[in-house]
Structures are given as C-alpha cells and as structure tokens.
Amino acid sequence: MDGPARDHVMKLIQEKDKIESEIREQNLVLEENNVGMQDLLVDGDGFPRNDIDIYKVRHARHRIVCLQNDHKNIMKQIERGLGEVHSQFHANSAGTSRNTESHSEHTNGFAEVSHNGNAESHPGTNDQSFAVIAFVQLGSPADMAGLHENDELLEFGTVNTSNFSDLNQVNYLVQHSVGQPIQVRVRRGTHILSLTIVPRIWTHPGLLGCRIERKS
Questions:
Q1: Measured between alpha carbons, how far is 169 from 74 in angstroms, rounded to an integer?
Q2: Is the pTM of this model over 0.70?
Q3: d(CA 61, CA 26)
Q4: Residue 48 DSSP symbol
Q5: What residues contact 210, with CB distance under 8 A and at least 6 apart?
Q6: If DSSP codes are grouped into helix, strand and coil, which group holds residue 57?
Q7: What phi and psi, each to the nearest 5 degrees, are found at residue 153?
Q8: How do residues 19-69 score in pLDDT, each as one tens digit?
Q9: What residues contact residue 79 under an 8 Å CB cut-off, 6+ apart?
Q10: 132 and 142 Cβ atoms separated by less than 8 Å
C-alpha cells in the first residue's frame, strides 16, 4: 500500500529507530561508569565522586530523559498514523470487495494492527489473552518495543492461550532469549498489534523492564 499516509508513518519509524539508537548510546555511557539513572553522583561526604565522569553521566541522563519523552511522542504519532493508513486501506477496498476479513498493514517489521476489533488470522492460535502488562519502565526493552501498560498478551513467542499454564513459561523464554527477538501479539483496546521485544541487560533489574501478570 502506497500513499502519503504510509510514507509519513515510515518516516516516523525511521525517526523512532534513530531515537532508540541514541538512547542505547547514552545508556552505554552510564554502563561504562557503573551507574544508573538514579544513582548518587556524590560520595558520603557530599563531594563529587571521583570514580565516574560526572559531566558525561549528567549529560547522558539528561539526554535519556529528553529522548524518552521524544520516543513516547513519536510512538503516539506512529499509532495514529497506522490508524490513518488502515482507514484509507479499508475505504479504498470497500468498493471493490465485500470480504469482511480483517486487513493489516506491515510497517518495516514494526507493528501489525487490526482496527475493526477482529484480530488478523494466525493459524493455530486464537485471540484470547492469558496475561496483561501491568507496568512498563521508561527506556526499558519493553518500552522500546512499544509495549504499553494494560496491553493484553495474546502471544509471547511460542506461548499462547492454548499452551499457557503459568508465567514461568514466559520467564523461561525470556531467560533463554537474551539478545534474541521475541515476537509478541497484544490487544490494546480494539487494536491488535504484533511487536518485537529483545530481552537484554540494561540499567535496571530484569531483562524486559515490565511486569507481566496472569489475567484473572
């Protein structure tokens, strides 16, 4: 599907990738100094620590905060843009087909979305959720992947409703997929998205930076 709306989304995704790349670079500065976003930069006597580069750490922290805000904003723009792309697609196809099957737009491997409340077709899976994202830490792998609080998990890698028994399955998959992409399908309101998350060590505990809770 071509058109101004799709071109705009693709440009936004490229900008998102640049922001994520710079966030990773700034996180490396913190890792090299063995500090996170909240660690004190003064010693017990109140003097600047001499074991870290204070200027670089302060600059990196400031840039990360700014970039995280930029990332949040651009993710919202991308989501709105995807909605426009799908609206145009369904409007264009309505006159030539009576097929009510849900259509989805693939945008550079970023997201797969259905806007009519019906999920895209995936043989062997269903659209029942087995868990929910209860919290997402800013700047985390989960945040970078586009996961939001209250997203309902339909699939997490090979785990779905048909084979889910407990969250240890998800934990096991995460622990054995460090640095490797995991495909995730979530329901967000009436939208269904396919996202890619890469578990990794970052500036906070955990490999994802989110809390997943079993759906009651």
A1: 32
A2: no
A3: 8
A4: B
A5: 133, 134, 135, 136, 137, 140, 142, 143, 147
A6: helix
A7: -80, 120
A8: 888 888 888 988 898 888 888 888 888 888 888 888 999 999 998 889 988
A9: none
A10: no
